[in-house]
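fyi for ur records
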Amino acid sequence: MLERGEVANSWRRERWDSLRLLTPNWQSRLPGLRYDGPEPDGYMTTAEVTEFIERYAKVSGAPVRTGANVTSVRRASDGYLLTTSLGEIHCQAVVIASGACNRPAVPGFSDAVPASVEQLTPFDYREPASLPDGGVLVVGASATGVQLAAELQSSGRPVTLSVGEHVRLPRLYRGRDVLWWMDASGVWDERYDEVDDLTRARRLPSPQLAGTPDRSTLDLNALASMGVELVGRWAALRDGRALFSGGLRNVFSLADLKMERLLTTFDEWARTEGGDADAVPSERFTPTRVPESTRLQLDLRSGEIRAIVWATGFRPDYEWLQVPVVDAKGQLNHDGGVVDSPGLYALGLPVLRRRKSSFMYGIEDDASEVIDHLARYLSARQ
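which gave:
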């Protein structure tokens, strides 16, 4: 196993200080190791995740080579040739487990943002004190965006949040973590070959959740109550002015509708199969409140905004992969983790084989099936 830095490198180097997992601790498990601490309904901090992964490396006896940065993977006559910072490696098969969040996805017009405005991505951000005094524009309202907007607003800075398509979820539903419902009802076990629109499913933004100790819901209503100003999706930048799309009402309504449908799925499961899960009555939540008036532009030269945090998602980095298996949008061509090149596999990508694929506890089922395929491939070559 090759790791470019230390074990759990991205959790050590590429996370902000207050970040916690979105999944409850009882869902933090890997084959042969699971959370055994005193707070099963809590949410791991970055330090705790780092320690958990370190412990798993030891418990599993994984042959990890740290400091092994892979700079090239290309086909060879007998398999693949890897060029790394520790030298070359020949192998018959390769499993790509580098994930889908290697680089922040920042729009091209960011280059035209006035130099007086500092720009950061979640990889750069650590805490509010690291930003200049003054207003902050957070772009993107998925899990990362809403968490950073809340933290920055609580620090006393005026925050504007640019909202596009998003997935709204309550933290708790009918007395249980909403991710308990996703797991128990079978939603997360839906297979990739059963999903109606797999491409869209793999591109869905992360839900608006936060792993706070009080298990509170952090949605747009909560942010607005804190004083965060909501504006539409940042559509363009012209003459130093950020131009936002209208139609927040439609964006909010769509997110609310999808949440309602999902909660109805939970209710139906509880009624037919859930046993005592339906002891707590079903509940519905206040629709996302539309601001009375919404700004459609913001002059970035005025000094009102001193920093921009691009919470606009992430993308994989396959620049080192010298095999023609990456599409025009930079995504890996694969069928459930079996890449379009013999002996090449992937793990840890969104909806790889199930909706839970990109979560820590979701990797075991995927890995079992992908490695079964790999084993058959190697056996056939002998």
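The chain is about 25% helix and 20% strand. thats all i got for now
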